[in-house]
């Protein structure tokens, strides 16, 4: 997870690195640790370290992970030659390594040679059928070819084996959302909330999915999850605040005319509307009128 | 540092004074040939005061406490990591190649 402090640190280091202020290695380590996708920066600055033999040897054994990191970044930037060179260096150092074999297969993938890449991954799987990364690469390959249903099949098979892999659950949820299969996506987000209950973004995504599904029961649950998002972010999530307002108005429309005895926490909507107004006043005073007209149209 | 550190120094000084008084007291007992039953009350008070002061210093001097609440401003999660294991390469970045002179020497 990327917390607020870590995000600030990354942005500060990125600025410093871009302006030639040093700290390149710290930046690359942080990007690796937080699993950020800044391939262009990693490629450019990682190469500047790798091409300087003094800096490179100062890294010690970390040198080889840097080669790997740069190779993947180069594939992501379609700098096939750089990736090839990095893999060659790694191959010379670790002949017969599976980790390097994986990189080679990924290179085939980056070049768009799907059947060759498939063969390479299959042979890697034959040697070690429980290699999680290779399983995931196959899913990604199916997705890259636009074959989403195959990707879903692979992912479901993979999740039967490795149920605790939250990244795979997240990927599956995102694929389902992209296909508008919200019921299945909701199931995946439930899994994610179970495995990482303190991440507000999963609560938010789950609430979004439930709101999209609609129906009184779903809307009420969605409202609860928006509320838990607000609790977990300390009230800083604008999306969740809007979600509360939308849910309340939708629930109000559905239950119009019925007895309103079971109305729960009526102050929640007015509080979130107030929080929104305060936030807008502080950060975007120009858009305050738009906000108040929107809230009025929701009849809050 | 600063005030906390000073408090710690005072605490350690009081502790060493208590030690010194105890040694003196035992020497006195040897001269008067009485049994040692316990330290005198002023030493006990000194020990308690120095304990409190040293505790205070140990909390205050090394640094500030950090929040453990997930919803606090420093700890709140603002982004999920990119799902790198599922990264795909045929995205629109292909059409905008980076500087081509990048090379591994």
UniProtKB/TrEMBL annotation, chain A:
Segments forming domain EMC2 TPR-like: 100-209
Subcellular location: Endoplasmic reticulum membrane
Keywords tagged on the record: Endoplasmic reticulum, Membrane, Repeat, TPR repeat
GO cellular component, one term: EMC complex
Pfam families membership: TPR_EMC2
Entry superkingdom: Eukaryota
Membrane topology: Peripheral membrane protein
Residues in the signal sequence: none
Family from the record: Belongs to the EMC2 family.
Assembly, per entry: Component of the ER membrane protein complex (EMC).
Function field: Part of the endoplasmic reticulum membrane protein complex (EMC) that enables the energy-independent insertion into endoplasmic reticulum membranes of newly synthesized membrane proteins.
Record's protein name: ER membrane protein complex subunit 2
Biological source species: Solanum bulbocastanum (Wild potato)
Taxonomic placement: Eukaryota, Viridiplantae, Streptophyta, Embryophyta, Tracheophyta
TrEMBL record, chain B:
TM helices/strands, residue ranges: 42-61
Keyword list, A-Z: Endoplasmic reticulum, Membrane, Transmembrane, Transmembrane helix
GO cellular component, one term: plasma membrane
Name under which the protein is recorded: Membrane magnesium transporter
Alphabetized Pfam families for the sequence: MMgT
Membrane-protein topology: Multi-pass membrane protein
Annotated localization: Endoplasmic reticulum membrane
Subunit-structure text: Component of the ER membrane protein complex (EMC).
Example GO molecular function: inorganic cation transmembrane transporter activity
Taxonomic superkingdom: Eukaryota
Protein family: Belongs to the membrane magnesium transporter (TC 1.A.67) family.
């Amino acid at each position: 997870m990327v917390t607020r402090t870590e995000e600030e640190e990354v942005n500060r280091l990125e600025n410093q690195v871009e302006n030639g202020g040093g700290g390149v290695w710290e930046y690359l380590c942080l990007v690796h640790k937080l699993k950020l996708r800044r391939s262009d920066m990693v490629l450019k600055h990682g190469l500047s370290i790798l091409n300087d033999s003094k800096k490179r040897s100062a890294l010690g054994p970390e040198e080889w992970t840097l080669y790997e990191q740069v190779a993947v970044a180069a594939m992501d930037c379609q700098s096939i030659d750089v990736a090839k060179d990095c893999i060659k260096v790694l191959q010379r150092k670790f002949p017969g390594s599976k980790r390097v074999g994986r990189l080679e297969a990924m290179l085939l993938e980056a070049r768009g040679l799907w059947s060759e890449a498939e063969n390479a991954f299959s042979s890697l799987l034959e040697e070690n059928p429980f290699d999680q990364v290779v399983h995931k690469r196959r899913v990604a390959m199916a997705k890259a070819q636009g074959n989403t249903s195959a990707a879903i099949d692979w992912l479901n098979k993979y999740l039967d084996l490795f149920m605790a892999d939250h990244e795979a659950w997240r990927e599956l949820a995102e694929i389902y959302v992209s296909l508008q299969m919200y019921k299945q996506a909701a199931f995946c987000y439930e899994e994610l909330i179970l495995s990482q209950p303190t991440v507000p973004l999963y609560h938010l995504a789950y609430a979004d999915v439930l709101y999209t599904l609609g129906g009184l029961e779903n809307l009420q649950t969605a409202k609860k999850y928006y509320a838990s998002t607000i609790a977990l972010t300390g009230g800083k999530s604008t999306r969740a605040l809007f979600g509360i307002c939308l849910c309340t108005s939708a629930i109000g429309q559905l239950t119009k005319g019925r007895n309103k005895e079971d109305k729960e926490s009526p102050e929640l909507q007015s509080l979130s509307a107030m929080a929104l107004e305060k936030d807008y006043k502080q950060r975007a005073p120009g858009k305050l009128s738009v906000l108040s007209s929107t809230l009025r149209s929701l009849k809050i | 540092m600063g005030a906390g550190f000073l408090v710690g120094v005072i605490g350690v000084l009081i502790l060493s004074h208590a030690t010194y008084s105890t040694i003196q007291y035992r020497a006195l007992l040897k001269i008067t040939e009485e049994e040692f039953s316990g330290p005198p009350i002023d030493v006990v008070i000194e020990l308690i005061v120095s304990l409190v002061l040293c505790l205070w210093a140990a909390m205050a001097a090394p640094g500030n406490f950090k929040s453990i609440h997930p919803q606090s401003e420093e700890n709140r999660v603002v982004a999920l990591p990119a799902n790198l294991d599922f990264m795909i390469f045929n995205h629109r970045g292909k059409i905008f190649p980076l500087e081509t002179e990048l090379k591994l020497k």
